[in-house]
Design a protein that fits this description.
The chain has a four-stranded mixed beta sheet with strand order 1-2-4-3. Helix 4 runs antiparallel to helix 5, helix 12 runs antiparallel to helix 15 and helix 13 runs antiparallel to helix 14. It is mostly helical.
Length: about 500
Amino acid sequence: MNRLRRTARVLLGAAAVYFLVLLVYTTLSRIGFPYELEWLEGCTVDSARRVLEGKSLFVAPSVDWIPYPYTPLYTYTAAAVARLVGIGFLAPRLVSLLCSAGALLLTGLLVRRETGHGLDGLVAAGFLAATYPLCGAWFDIGRVDNMFLLFVLGAVLIARSGPSVRRHALAGLLMGLAYLSKQTALLPLAALSLHDLFALRGRARFVLPAVSGAIIVGTTVLFDALTNGWYFFYTVRVPNGHGLGVESMLLGFWRDDLGWTLVPALLMGALYLGAAFRHALADRPGAFIFYSSLTVSMLGAAWISRIHGGGWLNVLQPAHAILAILFGLALHELEQVADRRRPALALYVLPMLQLWLLRYEPARYIPTPQDVRDGDAFVAALRSLPADVYVPMHGHLPTLAGKRVFAHDGYLLTTLQSGLPSVIDTLVPEFQEALGNGRFAAVVIDYEDYRFMEALRQRFRYAGALPGSFRPRLGPKGAPQRLYLWRGAPPGADPPSVPSTRPAMIRR
């Protein structure tokens, strides 16, 4: 290896280490932040508390509780950690951060296994760490995505490690756990299952889909029976009701989410798959079949999730993970080319350019002391209000003020989008009645286009903005500022009219 090549590889390795250290610094700097980093994170804490209280997550939707439409493994894991460290944001963030660390490690191990070079694996892991801003700074957020990604990458590594029945049974187990973390796992599961069916021989072909299928079907039947049918409603019916409603993302996913910043990685992925295809033509089809099908499934999972109503940047994580793997594998292919061509430094321009494009400023994602003061002021303002206060767009924060927590508006939307008349026809009047009968002394909203705004204005008066300017640092830029106080309308007054529940008229 000549000096130029050695220098280029050292620079790539140093950049990878830099991004890994930067990720550690950024996430640890905010893991103890006592308030929401993202507007739905508080609902994760509420879910964990509900588990510890012995209550079911999946019950009939009501003003009191609507669960998020995901399978429950992450919630139960966060609840187990919360039993040790206490109820709050720390427990789910710890789970997410450990899962993210595992995903980075698995990415590096997979690439090292394929290439035989630890540096290729290190660069792949560094690339994935560098996508932190591109996925909404999600690696440490108290949401389900990081656990799902951990299990998928674990299954990929084990499935790629050999054709034995035992290995593929373990991969099937991990894919079952991935589904129990987030239903998006079905697409990579399909890719791994198709690969095994066509690329393996004997019983090994059927083990992965059989094991994962048994886990998915078995838990769905069991949990559905235990929840009187609500598990299936929330984990199957509700997600399917979202629809592919974000037309701007049909092309925007490729142009904006991937195209601008990740062009070098996409080119390197194409380079590797092209090389794998040439190997396939030489009677070595294994790698091409495996990684081409996995690429389609992981990019497809991100794309379909992105064009679903409510799809945020966090759903890009599967796309970033497969691009990181292909990035490391392509780096090895560049090495093979460099062995035959000199000078070789030009071959490293593309990966160096990619890592340079991924640089970011961590301060943008770390809450400041002012953010803490704003959160303290908001909680103090809630505490000063009498009786029950409804904060529909934020979870857990009312608990910090000694108030009850009610259904989150984000999950009310997903439930209404299920399109099930028996649910919509009872749920909307229930919210209408709660706002019209004095159940809440106050309501604090983020936006003036709140779906029950007409009912709110009839029974409540606007009392101005709450002190401070607290808002979650990530996600939609709403702030719980607008305070409405109960007017004290006389009993028996006509209830407000029912607002439209058409998804097109509902703002997430």
